[in-house]
Specification:
single chain; mainly alpha; two-stranded antiparallel ribbon
Length: 168
């Protein structure tokens, strides 16, 4: 078993765990009157992330792991945990607004409007680069940027309608 396989196994388990948490949080939000926005692009988001992970397994499982890149990836995981902990039950992979709730402005949201997207965008580039796959990093970064442009537009509109203001 290579170190790359261990790393990819960790990422795969992490993503599966996050899907379970997101499903739980989605149900929590919907049961409290949450409204999903922008569901039309969600299958594309899931497909892109799934393809990214499958591609990592296909081409990265026998690659040497670049230690500085791994260090950056570990730092990104700390930020990921900070984002998820800050949002608590409001963190999900979907865009769901909860009527009557206030905009989150604590934790990393003091500094960035969409810190989760920053983390994900960095991961999509950093992990393939850590495994010596620059073309994969480029392709999936471009795909992610396209999907995030659609997603952030939808999320900002939903939050503006909900909170009466556009996020920073």
């Amino acid at each position: 078993m290579t170190f790359a396989v261990i790393l990819l196994g960790f990422v795969t388990l992490q993503r599966c765990g996050e899907l379970v948490l997101a499903h739980k949080n989605t149900n929590w939000l919907l049961n409290r009157g949450g409204l999903e926005i922008g569901a039309g692009h969600y299958p594309w988001l899931v497909a892109m992330h799934g393809a990214w992970l499958v591609s990592l397994w296909m081409w990265g499982d026998r690659q040497p792991v670049n230690l500085p890149g791994l260090g950056v990836f570990v730092v990104l995981q700390v930020f990921r945990i900070w984002v998820i902990a800050t949002l608590g039950p409001r963190w999900t992979t979907r865009i769901i607004v909860l009527p009557g709730s206030q905009l989150v402005t604590t934790g990393p949201y003091r500094f960035l409007s969409h810190p989760n997207y920053v983390v994900v965008a960095c991961e999509i580039a950093v992990l393939p680069l850590t495994l010596g796959l620059p073309l994969m990093a480029l392709i999936y970064t471009a795909l992610n940027a396209l999907i995030l442009a659609i997603r952030i537009y939808a999320e900002n509109r939903a939050l503006a309608k909900q909170c009466g203001e556009l996020r920073r």
